[in-house]
Design brief:
- The complex is a heterodimer.
- Chain A folds into 2 domains: 53 residues; 74 residues, no CATH class.
- In chain A, 71% of the residues lie in helices and 0% in strands.
- Chain A is built from 5 helices and no strands.
- The relative contact order of chain A is 0.11.
- By secondary structure, chain B is mostly helical.
- Chain B has one domain.
- Chain B is globular, with a radius of gyration of 22 Å.
- The N and C termini of chain B lie far apart (57 Å).
- Classes of the chains: A mainly alpha, B mainly alpha.
């Protein structure tokens, strides 16, 4: 998935570089301060290496030497944002609130409809989308509820 | 020849049905661009919970074998490799299909895959017990270094940046430490209630491999993708077998290179296919024909990428070190059934181990039969619109990750790791070392702690971890993998700068 071209800007590289460095600092601090120390013997070893590598990566980002990775362009972000928002709502909120099957049905239909090049005003396209979604959810229900007997949260609906 | 005693288990009705189902399903999933073998196997793991360990592994093994081969269908008929392992196949396969030799290309591709695959599994059969016996000599310090070696090798081979490859491995090791410490009962790095039980490997694998691909599919936007499928003409299988017989050199190069590459942790099918294609061309008297629809190219690439499958499981089954992300997923499949691979596997669970390996051998033959039979249909599945694929994988990821422990926390972890991996991947970090760090972390820690206790009772940690031929060999390999990674990333940078 990683692509070397086009390259992300220095600023773009700095954001994940800084986040990873901050995370490494937190991990190192927790590893050397938390008790009991015997439980943090191995974490300390890893934390030191993690911190060194994260600092090295951060400096490289700062100097503009970090060039691997295409980054995320604003136009790409704009394209993925609706799908990402639907997915995040499904995973963090709707699955538990509405019930797994109802939430998954809605999320599936929304993702399909949003990224489907067919017109949103075409009733035929909507009939196809709803049909595909219902068919897929029936398979999921058959596999998980009936075959694997997974008890999913029912939420407000199902 | 102990393995011969366990062939019966493969032909039990449930096991054989799973083998056939896994092979057909794997061929279809493999032909679907965007569904990598690793992701397909990760999404299948929840379906193995209700099965016995052997049956679950048969399903996963069949899917692994068939997805690698199935990727050739879309590579040949649509010029879209189903998986990175099939990139080299598309070079000559699609050109053959355009010349009206699509059926010949598919038949030759599956026959070469089958021969390469059988050779690879035979290597697995004969090498594994020998290495497992050798692994009995391993103590905690050796197992610790082996785990670290697994992470550094993958970090060096699977990343374009030295620092980011190693950093990915370290992040994986850190993630593995989240939750309760088994020995002291202490809480470590629990930033949210969902993390109390630690990070379960299956939701993590689903998140790391499936969610970035879903987001990648989102990034294509509302575009009508015009995929031109090349029609398949009828072709007698006998002709394709004769063609394969006339191209023994390409078949041998692909099979041998693929098998050797499979044994090296982290190298994988993509490199196997491309390297075999390149070497076969170098040794061919008809170099100029490569890329123009020459069957040798397809034979070399496909025999290599399937020959790699069996040997890639050798380090997993003998040393419990998964040599590839897909092997790491298979390790997850073993662990959920309470089976820990390693030197004891063939002593404590010979039926599970041998039936699984034998099923991979039978699976190669089934893959050839079903591959040739359903290739045309599989190509149609490959044309499923991207929005449907994205929505389907998203919903499967939700249900799959929840079903592991029936915990909504696992869903949160899966999705959060998935988003994090997407962002990291875009900035040059790699999924493979992160996953291996996550899987090998507990092995490394347990052996580090155990080794430290022994060291305290003996001559101290330096003497215990750094003295002895095996320790020195492993430390040397760790250092060599780090130095190689550093050197190759500098070479990459230099060549990029020279090109620009």
């Amino acid at each position: 998935m990683t692509s070397a071209s086009p390259q992300a800007s220095r600023l773009q590289h700095l954001i994940p570089g800084t986040l990873v460095f901050v995370l490494a600092l937190i991990v190192a601090w927790l590893s050397f301060t938390a008790e009991p120390s015997a439980a943090f013997l191995f974490p300390r070893l890893i934390a030191v290496v993690l911190l060194l590598l994260a600092a090295w990566n951060f400096v490289r980002c700062l100097l503009g030497l970090s060039r691997v990775g295409s980054g995320i362009s604003p136009s790409e972000l704009k394209t993925i944002a609706p799908g990402l928002a639907i997915a995040a709502l499904l995973m963090y909120v709707a699955a538990k609130l509405l019930g797994f099957y109802a939430a998954a049905f809605i999320a599936y239909l929304l993702v399909y409809a949003w990224y489907d090049p067919a017109s949103h005003l075409d009733p035929g396209a909507w009939a196809r989308r709803i049909g595909v979604t219902a068919g897929f959810m029936a398979i999921i229900y058959g596999l998980f509820a009936m075959l694997l007997q997974v008890q999913t949260p029912r939420g407000m609906f199902f | 020849m102990e393995f011969l005693n366990y062939f019966g288990g493969v032909f039990e009705p449930v096991a054989f049905s799973l083998l056939v189902g896994g092979t057909i399903g794997g061929l279809i999933l493999g032909a679907t661009p965007g569904l990598s073998p690793t992701m397909a196997v990760a999404l299948l793991i929840p379906f193995t919970f209700k099965l016995e360990a052997t049956q679950g592994l048969i399903l996963l093994g069949a899917a692994y074998t068939a997805t690698v081969a199935g990727g050739a269908v879309s590579a040949i008929l649509l010029k879209i490799p189903g998986a990175p392992a099939n990139i080299a196949t598309a070079l000559d396969g699609y050109a053959m299909a355009q010349k009206g030799e699509g059926a010949k290309a598919l038949q030759v591709s599956f026959l070469a895959s089958g021969i390469g695959g059988v050779f690879g599994v035979l290597l697995l059969i004969f090498l594994t017990p020998v290495l497992a016996q050798w692994a009995l000599a391993f103590g905690p310090s050796h197992l610790f270094w082996m785990a670290i070696l697994g992470v550094t090798v993958i970090g060096s081979l699977d990343s374009k940046s030295f620092v980011k490859g190693m950093l990915s491995g370290c992040l994986g090791l850190w993630l593995s430490m989240i939750g309760y410490d088994d020995m002291q009962g202490a809480q470590r790095f629990i930033f949210h209630d969902s993390l109390t039980g630690g990070i379960n490997i299956i939701p993590a694998l689903i998140g790391i491999f499936a969610i970035p691909q879903v987001i990648d599919m989102f990034s294509k936007g509302r575009v009508i993708h015009s995929i031109t499928e090349v029609a398949i003409q009828k072709q007698a299988i006998g002709e394709s077998m004769k063609l394969l017989g006339r191209n023994k050199r390409a078949l041998s190069i692909g099979t041998l290179l693929g098998s050797v590459i499979g044994l090296i942790p982290g190298v994988g099918g993509q490199i196997a296919g491309l390297l075999a294609y390149d070497q076969s061309r170098k040794f061919s008297p008809n170099k100029a024909k490569y890329g123009t629809g020459y069957p040798e190219g397809v034979i070399a690439a496909e025999s290599a990428n399937n020959a790699m499958v069996g040997p890639s499981l050798v380090p997993l089954l003998t040393l419990s070190i998964p040599g590839s992300p897909t092997a790491a997923v298979l390790l997850g499949g073993l662990l959920i059934h309470g089976i820990f691979p390693g030197s004891d596997l063939f002593t404590n669970y010979p039926e599970v181990a041998w039936t699984f390996i034998n099923s991979m051998l039978i699976g190669q033959i089934l893959m050839v039969i079903f591959g040739i039979w359903i290739a045309g249909y599989a190509a149609k599945v490959a044309k499923i619109p991207t929005p449907i694929m994205a929505a389907s994988v998203l919903v499967l990821a939700l249900f799959g990750s929840y079903s592991v422990q029936q915990s909504i926390g696992d869903v949160y972890i899966m999705f959060t790791l998935g988003i994090g991996m997407y962002v990291l991947d875009k900035f040059g970090f790699s999924a493979a070392p992160l996953v291996l760090g996550l899987i090998l972390g507990p092995i490394a820690e347990a052996n580090f702690v155990q080794g430290s206790m022994i060291a305290n009772a003996m001559d101290g940690p330096l003497a215990y971890f750094l003295v002895g031929p095996l320790n020195l060999l492993l430390v040397g390999l760790v250092i060599a993998s780090i130095v190689y990674s550093f050197w190759s990333s500098r070479l990459d940078r230099a060549s990029t700068e020279a090109a620009s």
